[in-house]
Amino acid sequence: MLEQRIQRHFFDCADLMNQSAEVLSKPIADAVQAVLGCITAGGKVLACGNGGSAGDAAHFAAEFVGRFERERPGLAAIALNTDTSILTAIANDYAFDQVFAKQVQALGNPGDVLLAITTSGNSANVLTAVDVAHEKDMTVIALTGRGGGKLGARLIETDVHLCVPHERTARIQEVHILAIHCICDAVDSQLLGEQDPA
Q1: ∠ at Cα 145 (32, 86), nearest 5°?
Q2: Rg for the chain, CA atoms, rounded
Q3: How far is CA 77 from each of CA 28, 92, 107, 174, 177, rounded to the nearest angstrom?
Q4: This prediction's pTM
Q5: 2, 55, 163, 134 alpha-carbon torsion, rounded to 10°
């Protein structure tokens, strides 16, 4: 019984990955172009999310600043959910829904990218950050699920929406991390030339 339950996770994940490959390959390619335009113009990517999505934001920044699979100079990326002093100061002095928006206001510039990650599309602090990013003429790449929620309705024509076609948080997060890896790989291939994955 337990092994069957575990196998079901693998099978469900595989089914969704196959479905998402068709749905998300074009928006992921659009996201890559947005990131490339930003980075090659001297800009940076600011990433944010809560819980598991915070982990994904930090993972993305680590792959950019360090490396993904190939040696290259570091690329400019900051995860906005990793500095506990900033997070607790803003949450305490203002409100928790401002913890990312205040950082976007302070660190974001026109032409930068905000990678906004929320499985439901309804995280208030991510939505507020997206509003500030738009005010600062930044491009938003939104990673969501469940139809996109409120974030999907907030996006504008120049933004990119990677909406996983599923309702379950765990499955959505599994596709999000693959999408992040696809972005990292594609950016490297565009900057460094094509190389077959090992």
Answers
A1: 75
A2: 17
A3: 18, 26, 11, 22, 16
A4: 0.96
A5: 160
Here the tokens at position 124 are 């208030």
Can you tell me the distance from the alpha carbon of 125 to that of 106, in angstroms, rounded to the nearest whole number?
15
Strands of the sheet containing 77-79, edge to edge, are 77-79, 45-48, 113-117, 139-145, 160-164
> Using one digit for the tens of pLDDT, what is the confidence trace for 156-197?
999 999 999 999 999 999 999 999 999 999 999 999 998 765
Q: What value does the mean pLDDT take over residues 13-21?
A: 97
Pinpoint the alpha helices (H) of the chain: 2-40, 52-65, 84-93, 101-107, 124-135, 149-154, 169-192
- Residue in this structure with the two tokens 């379950």, named with its chain if needed: 168
